Amino acid sequence: MWKVEGVVLRVRNLGEADRIVTLFSREKGKLNAVARGARRIRNRLLSPTQVFTHGQYLVFPGQGLHNLSQAEIVHSWQGLRDDLEKFAYASYITELLDALTVEEDPSEQVFSLLASTLALADQGRLKLAARAFEVRLVRELGYEPELYVCLSCREPLEDNLFFTEQGGMLCQKCAPQFPGSMPLSNGAWELLKKLLEWDFSKLTILHPAAKLEDELRKAMRKYLDFRLEYPLKSLDFLETLTAVPPGSD
Ligand SMILES: [Zn+2]
Questions:
Q1: From the CA of 212, how far away is ligand 1's center (Å)?
Q2: Where are the domains of the chain?
Q3: How far is residue 102 from each of residues 24, 176, 236, 242, 245, measured CA to CA in Å?
Q4: Is the pLDDT assigned to residue 246 strictly greater than 60?
Q5: Cβ distance 148 to 168 under 8 Å?
Q6: Strand 161-164's sheet: what is its strand order?
Q7: Using CA of residue 230, residue 212, residue 188, residue 111, what is the dihedral sign?
Q8: How far does residue 107's CA lie from ligand 1's centre (Å)?
Q9: pLDDT > 90 in the chain, percent
Q10: What spacing in Å lies between the alpha carbon of 18 and ligand 1's midpoint?
Q11: I need a surface site. Which of 27, 92, 169, 231 has the fewest CB within 10 A?
Q12: How far is CA 130 from each of CA 48, 86, 153, rounded to the nearest angstrom?
């Protein structure tokens, strides 16, 4: 029997009344478990097995699928399910984590990052939460972008910078060797470093200009897509929702 603290990344229906729950837990990493009867009204597993819920779970390990037998909510994060934009961002964050991790490979740092990111998203700092999560997650998973010297010639970075999905920052001289590399402003570069280096709790004082945030979003999108085996479903929804209306700047 495992007693784990986890966040619900994904929920699928099983049979008449059951749910298959994908948790990211502090103790065991990602795991899939069946919550019997969890879709029945008044079932004690109904609320704690909703997507994004942070809770304590009792799991009985099995062959293949485990069984989730008891649960207690730590943070329901109801606000992330009630608001369409928050829901879209939280779906992206949890789907990205699901896509980049394998089962039962625990990481205390990844769990803490997930919990802190959902708290930031719940406060409505959605873009900041998504960008900080992306760059910190790839660091924890072992493929942090090179931000401090040119990826190719290893010279210090100064000005006229480029970014490649193949590994991070490039100087102007080396950029042509990396087809598809994109220019990145010094402002976006500085923002990226802050998102990675600062204490997570201090990130709320950052209020990046929309232009810098957008530049960073595009760079990280390329960086992540290069490593993902399949496109994320939540991205279509997020992009539709946040699309700039025609005619506006
Ligand atoms: Zn270079």
A1: 23
A2: 2-77, 79-146+188-242
A3: 10, 35, 24, 30, 38
A4: no
A5: no
A6: 168-170, 161-164, 182-184
A7: negative
A8: 34
A9: 92
A10: 55
A11: 231
A12: 24, 11, 31
Q: For residue 161, report the distance from its CA to the centre of ligand 1, in Å.
A: 9
- Using CA atoms of 78, 84, 89, 94 in order, give the dihedral in degrees to the nearest 10: 50
How many angstroms separate the alpha carbon of residue 182 from the centre of ligand 1?
14
Distances (CA, A) of 125 to 53, 204, 213: 18, 8, 12
Question: What is the per-residue pLDDT across 220-242, written as a single tens digit (0 to 9) for each?
Answer: 999 999 999 889 999 988 888 87
Tens digits of per-residue pLDDT, 146-168? 999 999 999 999 999 999 999 99
User: What is the CATH number assigned to the segment(s) 2-77?
Assistant: 2.40.50.140
Q: Is the four-CA dihedral 94, 97, 100, 102 of positive or negative sign?
A: negative
Distance from residue 169's CA to the centre of ligand 1 (Å): 9
Q: How far is the CA of 223 from the centre of ligand 1 (A)?
A: 18
Measured in angstroms, how far is the CA atom of residue 156 from the centroid of ligand 1? 8
Taking the centre of ligand 1 as the mean of its atom positions, its distance from the CA of residue 187, in whole angstroms, is: 19
State the CATH class of domain 79-146+188-242: mainly alpha
